[in-house]
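Entry 14. Ran structure prediction on the chain below.
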Amino acid sequence: EAPERESKRAGKPKAKGSDTMTVGSQFMTQLSSLMRTINATDVHYVRCIKPNTLNKPAIFDMAHSAHQLRCAGVLEAVRISRMAYPNRMPHASFVSRYALLAPSEWQAAHEVDMARARAAAPGDESARALCEGALALVVEDVARYQLGKTKVFFRAFLLEALEQRRGNALATYAVVVQKMLRSALWSRRFRLLRLSSVRLQALRRRQVQLSEYRRQRAAAIALAAAGRGLRARILRRRLLAAVRIQAAGRAAAARDRVYHLRRRLCATRLQAAVRSHRHRSAFTARRGAALRLQSKARMASQRRAYLRDLAEKKEEAKLSTQLAKLQARLQAEMEARQNAERALEAGAAADEGSGS
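Output, structure tokens:
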């Protein structure tokens, strides 16, 4: 801004002495502009350390760098910071980063709470309680940390120890994961190799058995063909002789069959007449017996019904008699009561007459 003002001042005619800007006023103007810019932005301070006095790359002078840090007050600030609680972390960040150092039972019991705490806002009570429980399990020395409202504060070297423990735990988990993956991979390879070998063995055995079967089948077919030919020739000779014998036998048998058929026809007619008479007689006897049985069954049924009705009628007559007796007794009692009432009334009237 100062060069621009100088150029503007050079292009204008010389003003009066009261309008002349001094070095102090320029400094104040620039300082106020710088402060407005700083207040309008997020400031990040960077300390520049020269690694060597030769201004050359790839050369690092430790003594020179330490002297610059000491003169700039960085080492003193670090020492003072380490005397109290130099490291701090929000509750949700601590739970998300160091909960894996807690026992597996605690992690399984608070799995849902840890998922909620990762997305919780600063100062959330559930995240603070979960962080307190995790700290009690992860850090043995209670004096090395303090639990605030939104953050947890650590003593010096505690965060480095937690990071080292976290790295060791992650390395252990990585080894376990690698072991399981290698186990699954080699198990799958072993199953594939075993399946391939079993299939190859099955194919080889199938090929051997198929060749043996074909050879034995061809031999069996040849033997069977020769045997069938011999048996066919012998059978043909026997059949020719048998045909002649059977023709003569069938002729004689046919003649006998005709004779017997004629006799059987006559016998059949006689038998039919006898069987007809026998069946008719048997049917008549069975029908008469059935009718007699039915009549006796109906008579017995009617007799039981009659006896049952007779018993009911007797019971009804008995009940009617008892009812009539009760009614007569009731009527007699009512008449006796009425007579007694009349007698009492007459006696009362007689007493009244005698008294008057």
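Residues 158-355 form the longest helix (198 residues). Will compare against last week's run tomorrow.
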